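Structure tokens please, single chain.
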Amino acid sequence: MKKQALSLTLCLPHLNQGYYRGTRFDWAGLIRDLRIGRQRYVDEWFDSYDPLKHDCVCGPAEEFTQIGYDQACVGGEFLKIGVGTLVKPKEKEYDRFNLYKIANAGSRLFKQNDDDEVCFRHLLIADKYGYDYRKIIFLADEDRIILKHTLKNLGPSELSGSVYDHNFFTLGKSVVGPDTRISFPFKPVGDWRSAYDSVCLTENGIEFSRTLKQDESVFMGNLHPKEPNDQETYEGYAFELGNTKTNMKVNAQCSSAFTHFVFWANHRVACLEPYIPFHIYPGESFNWEIEYLFNL
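Here you go.
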């Protein structure tokens, strides 16, 4: 896809030949490459590629939390929206890093509506679950894309969980460190997994005091606004990710309610992951849009 200086390379989902065939992330609409002129915002960030590895994805890759794992018996099926129904092994707890056997991959359709819009559709009908999931990628301007989603429940069971974008932006193959800039329209709070000497929260973002080493990562699982919230969600999110050395920035925003951010970074990518909850009863639909604005 291309619109003036903005160009995207998309990966079409396929059970046997797809670029990504893991069972963690949604297969639809994976962006392998995103450029504005000579500036490359999305690229492979991992050291080695394996189509079955859980995180060999690029760009704003989306994951739905699993549904029905605890209720399924060993050998039974549970649901990963965007992938299909998966077979539950003997392990007691679900592990998103595992590769599960796909029991029902559903059916997929792809349509290019015009030069600046494509639609991915995933239809799945199983005994307990069913859905019609549509994801549209729209090139709104030469520096802006919009991801439009519709998830309709076609089955007998409620679809309840969360969906988030992992946001693997490479920003010209920059390294994560003092040149990395992350900001929010709120004061962030949260708990680091360890006592890191490389990263900290600021009044309106996250900053690094040194460059991360090749085998180093940092993690925060409960980043959220400081303002007290008696509800389970906050209304809409926004963030900016940039690098002062490459002078590249990505601004993301979404009007849907979110519960929290997960933040994960290694030496190649600094990923903000906003979690959007959904509760969809049979016959009902859930819609959400995410906008990404890139500096030229």
